[in-house]
Write a structure and sequence with these properties.
Layout (H helix, E strand, L loop, with lengths): L2 H21 L1 H19 L8 E6 L1 H7 L10 H13 L4 E7 L7 H14 L2 E4 L1 E11 L2 E12 L3 H6 L2 E3 L11 E3 L1 E2 L5 E2 L1 H9 L4 H11 L11 H5 L7 H11 L1 H13 L6 H15 L3 E3 L11 E3 H5 L4 H8 L5 E6 L13 E2 L11 E2 H14 L4 E2 L2 H21 L2 H26 L1 E2 L3 H24 L1 H9 L5 H9 L9 E12 L2 H6 L3 H21 L3 E6 L2 E8 L4 H24 L8 E17 L2 E7 L1 H16 L3 E4 H4 L5 E10 L7 E9 L5 H18 L3 H14 L4 H15 L10 E2 L4
Length: 753
């Protein structure tokens, strides 16, 4: 197995291991626990949208207002005055993250609170969620218990006064990373942040539904005439439920709306476009969304409750004036660790403080709303893409660590890991995209590095055997043995040897390539070369070079030996026979007519190149001459040509001398023969052709132009396809018209390749 394949094998193993591990639920939990913590802390605090403000019920406010520490014991007429102040200040929506599912101590307080809520007409209250165990029975027998979540709305007087009410469930027993946008266990109803966004973005609903009607006229929905109509009851027939079901049943609607929003020519303000985009993402999104926290507790703009109430002084008045057009969330938000756990309403998050201070429920609700408004939640990479990324990362790291030396592999792992971490952090910071972190960096990277080092160490112990195996495919055993014994500079393996060279080329290959696609051409040439390689390898040759449609094969020996020339000639004949079968085997496949050229002599087998790039090649005049002889076939109209010295003494082959030629770029003439086949397979017609051609060539050399022309013409009458006869007939006819200058030599000069 080659080094690259070994690298690929290790890479595939590392990639598959990462994919399998990522698919395990427990591993996914660990990744979520560690990755989000790392990413948020590496990113640091981020700027929260200015449209969101928290009015914090905290210990300091309780002390300054002379109220109990427990928020549920605060008088509700105080909340009524807060609502009135916020409404006068121009708050766009007011959300209470306080449960009012039981009557207050004073009925008048509830009535006053309800009246203030009704006048504000933009207050959203939170529902209480309680888990209850219901015993399931059948035919009078108990068959099991079912745990259900029961939604308890605010007391009727407040429920009727509020613009809307919604649940906002969060887990107490684990770290909070997500929240529900639509709570399935609570009747598939929208949660508090979603309802708040709908009210906040009510003015954009007309444009939003208009956009929907343009891309999906069959789903046209009349815009609600008020925010109360929009969020009324949140039942199955409401606008919210209808839109949610529509987007879930046909996700393409969301795609078309997003595309239409990008291309619309309507005069939409940036703020209106932002709200439409937020609504679109809300309805298209999952029922569970990841929270994109902005930092430690109170990273979102927070006004203490007492300052919001005491609007008389300048600083507090500035706070109140800052509520205009904002979404205000009211709830418990400690500035420091509460002394009594019974008043706590905070949750473990990635930004929980070492002191024990966690982020409060109201700040989580405000964070969820801000994420929806900015359309910037944390977006995990889709699971299929996550598996693909882990697989690709494993393949790249494993292959690199397997193919490189330990120091280089270690440096590359550090470089790639740093680059990957930078990309992950930037994607998380800029777009909230959550890419895998633990598996690529903490599992796959060390495994790839140590696996590559260990496997390379094992391979090093078998280096001599691997070298011999690798070079044995294209070098004689003796040369390989010498190379192994004298491992050193790259040039130490160079050997001056005797050999035969076979060059091939496909006729009209360029024109053929223009008529085929690259894939079709590649497949055709692969099949073609498979036919060429078999005879070469069977007869002891080595394919030295393949470029486009040309192949170079060599047969090497320490000294001049007829056996290598015989093997080369035999291979040429077998290639011709194989290509004849190849061209007939599939009807409609392009016919690849191939010219072959053979020459023999001394050549240098060695590493040719410089710097860090070398190729093991045959170099010498013999190699160039073989290529020129192959090219001569274009002029003579032949398929197989060889130099006379290549076939010298090889009586088992049928040959025809076709003259001596001064080939392009050469200063010495080369006498060439056509290789016609095996002597034992010769037929009378071929023998007659060769005999008649020899007579014509003799007359040509004797400068008997008319006699030679007559002989070649007679040959063409009997053998119209004979290329050499046509070549010499044309030369004789030109000499009859214009005799050559003296002294004349029968050597033919070929100026082009």
């Amino acid at each position: 197995m080659g080094r690259s394949l070994k690298g690929l094998a290790l890479g595939l193993a590392i990639g598959l291991l990462g994919v399998l591990a990522t698919s395990l639920p427990r591993v996914s939990e660990i990744e979520e626990d560690f990755e989000l913590r790392w990413l948020f802390h590496l990113r640091g605090a981020a700027q929260a949208p200015p449209e969101v403000v928290i009015v914090a019920i905290d210990e300091q406010s309780a002390q300054k207002l002379g109220l109990p520490s427990k928020p549920s014991e605060w008088p509700r007429d105080l909340h009524a005055r807060l609502v009135e102040r916020l409404a006068r200040a121009g708050a766009r929506v007011i959300c209470f993250d306080l449960t009012f599912d039981t009557p207050g101590r004073a009925p008048q307080s509830d009535q006053g609170f309800a009246a203030a809520i009704g006048r504000a007409a933009n207050v959203v209250l939170v529902d209480s969620l309680r888990k209850e165990t219901v015993r399931q029975a059948s035919s009078g027998q108990t068959i099991g218990d079912i745990l259900i979540e029961k939604v308890t709305p605010p007391i009727p007087v407040l429920e009727q006064a509020a613009l809307a009410h919604a649940p906002f469930p969060l887990p107490k027993e684990s770290r909070v990373n997500t929240y529900w946008t639509f709570k399935t266990g609570a009747g598939d109803s929208p949660t508090l942040p979603v309802v708040a966004l709908q009210i906040y973005a009510f003015d954009a609903y007309h444009d939003f539904l208009g956009l929907l009607s343009r891309v999906a006229p069959q789903h046209t929905i009349a815009p609600p005439d008020s925010a109360r109509a929009l969020v009324a009851a949140n039942d199955a027939g409401g606008v919210t439920a209808t839109l949610r079901n529509m987007f879930l049943s046909d996700p393409q609607i969301g795609e078309r709306m997003a595309r239409e929003l990008r291309n619309t020519d309507e005069d939409l303000t940036p703020s209106r476009t932002r709200l439409i985009r937020s609504l679109l993402s809300l309805y298209r999104g999952n029922e569970v969304a990841y929270l994109n926290f902005y930092g430690p507790p109170r990273s979102i703009a927070t006004v203490p409750y007492n300052e919001a109430m005491n609007s008389g002084n300048g600083d507090s008045q500035a706070h109140v004036n800052g509520f205009e057009g904002k979404a205000v969330f009211v709830g418990f938000s400690a500035f420091s660790q509460p002394e009594q756990d019974r008043i706590r309403d905070d949750y473990q998050t990635v930004f929980s403080q070492p002191s024990g201070l966690d982020i409060s429920g109201v700040e989580i609700a405000a964070t969820a709303f801000a994420n929806l408004l900015d359309d910037r939640p944390v977006r995990p990479m889709p699971f299929a893409w996550q598996l693909a990324l882990v697989m690709l990362w494993g393949v790249v790291l494993g292959a690199a660590c397997r193919m490189l030396r330990p120091i280089a592999a270690g440096a590359l792992v550090v470089l790639l890991a740093s680059a990957y971490l930078s990309v992950v952090l930037r994607q998380f910071t800029v777009a909230g995209i959550w890419l895998p972190l633990v598996m690529p960096l903490c599992v796959q990277a060390p495994l790839a590095l140590f696996g590559g080092v260990l496997l390379n160490y094992r391979d090093a112990r078998r280096e001599r055997k691997l070298i011999k195996q690798a070079f044995g495919y294209y070098l004689p055993d003796k040369v390989v043995d010498q190379l192994i014994e004298r491992v050193g500079h790259i040039s130490s393996a160079d050997q001056l040897v005797y050999g035969a060279c076979l060059a091939t080329d496909v006729e009209k290959y360029t024109a053929l390539a223009e008529t085929m696609s690259p894939r079709e051409l590649g497949q055709l040439m692969n099949e073609y070369y498979a036919e060429l390689f078999k005879p070469v390898e069977r007869l002891g040759g080595v394919v030295n070079e393949v470029v486009g449609d040309a192949m170079m094969a060599i047969w090497a020996a320490p000294s001049s030996q007829a056996s290598v020339r015989k093997q080369a000639c035999q291979a040429a004949l077998e290639i011709a026979e194989a290509l004849e079968r190849f061209n007939r085997s599939i009807v409609g496949r392009p016919v690849l007519l191939t010219r072959l050229g053979l020459h023999s002599g001394q050549m240098l087998l060695g590493n040719i190149g410089a710097s860090r790039h070398y190729e093991y090649q045959a170099v010498g005049d013999m190699v160039n001459t073989a290529t020129r002889i192959q090219g001569l076939g274009k002029y003579l109209g032949t398929r197989m040509l060889a130099s006379e010295e290549t076939v010298d003494g090889l009586d088992e082959f049928l040959t025809r001398p076709v003259g001596c030629f001064l080939l392009a770029g050469k200063t010495e003439a080369v006498c060439v023969v056509e290789l016609g086949g095996r002597e034992e397979d010769a037929n009378p017609r071929a023998s007659m052709l060769y005999e008649k051609f020899a007579g014509g060539l003799e007359a040509y050399r004797a400068k008997r132009w008319r006699d030679a022309a007559s002989r070649f013409s007679n040959i063409l009458d009997a053998f119209p396809e004979d290329g050499p006869s046509r070549f010499y007939l044309q030369r004789c006819e030109s000499y009859l018209l214009k005799p050559p200058d003296e002294p004349w030599q029968p050597t033919v000069r070929i100026d082009q390749k």
